[in-house]
Amino acid sequence: MGRLLGQRWVRDLGLKVSGVLVVLLALELCSRTGLLSRDWFPPVTETYAELFKLAAGHPLWTEIGRTLSGWALGIGLATVLAVPCGILLGSNQTAYRMTRVVIEFCRPVPSVALIPLAVLVYGVGLEMKVFLIVFVTFWPILLQVIYGVQDVDPVVRDTARAYGLPPMARFFRVTLPSAAPYIATGLRIASAIALVLAVTAELVVGAPGLGQSIVVAQSNANLPRMYALIIVTGLVGWVLNLAFQAIERRLLRWHPSQRQEVAQ
């Protein structure tokens, strides 16, 4: 069984790598043959040469750290605020109905529309990025927690109450395990939104980070560096998503959804 899974993993990895190489080769040929103007689309080999050059230098990792610091602080604060609020609202239908209109109004507010306010209050530093990330990621985490708490099986909840379990024991043994997959999904969604918003804020207002470096490279007409930095932002998002998936599989390996995923 283990050997079969290993062979399947190697085959899947080979297919994924082959697909990426085919796309990169096609872009290289299009640029070299003139189908794509080299003034705007430099050859892939030049872009990746610049990428490896950046990876060997200290400034790239500094900019990644600046972007991820805002991402981490924003996600952390949003989680600390949203999880208790979601548990409260999910456990109390009256409170949920009272706040539902406010949630539905604030949730779709475009994050870009808040950038002028954030700059006015916090300037263009780390605080501005954290404020935007907290506001935007608060809502998906909150809603997932609410749905998770409301999705607790009423039979299980009533059985725990009938056996005389105190409220805290019911929360940790019934409510929290039921809501955990929803919380994990909310955090994974919020992670992607937070990274996009951090880079967007850096692009628009020039806050330090990867977005600012992309703008500087574009202003200097250094297109290989610009594309290399764009690739870096994609790699950062990919790594973060893989990390959240790995943590979710590790912490929720008892959940049926994770067992089914492993079996597949």
What name does the CATH topology carry? Answer: MetI-like fold
Order of helices and strands: HHHHHHHHHHH
Structure summary, number of beta strands = 0
> What is the CATH superfamily?
MetI-like
Rg on CA atoms, Å: 23 Å
Give the helix proportion (percent range).
over 70%
Write down the domain tally: 1
Look at the structure and give the mean pLDDT: 86
Write down the CATH class: Mainly Alpha
Number of helical segments with 4 or more residues? 11
InterPro entries: MetI-like (IPR000515), MetI-like_sf (IPR035906)
Family: Belongs to the binding-protein-dependent transport system permease family.
Main location: membrane
Protein name: ABC transporter permease subunit
Brief rundown of the structure:
Belongs to the binding-protein-dependent transport system permease family. It is built from 11 helices and no strands. It has 264 residues and is an all-alpha fold.
Highlighted features:
264 residues; mainly alpha; MetI-like fold
Account of the protein in words:
Pfam families: BPD_transp_1. The protein has 264 residues and is mainly alpha-helical. The protein has one domain: MetI-like fold (Orthogonal Bundle). It contains eleven helices and no strands. Helix 3 packs across helix 8, helix 5 crosses helix 6 and helix 6 runs antiparallel to helix 8. The longest helix is centred in the last third of the chain and has 39 residues. The two termini are 12 Å apart.
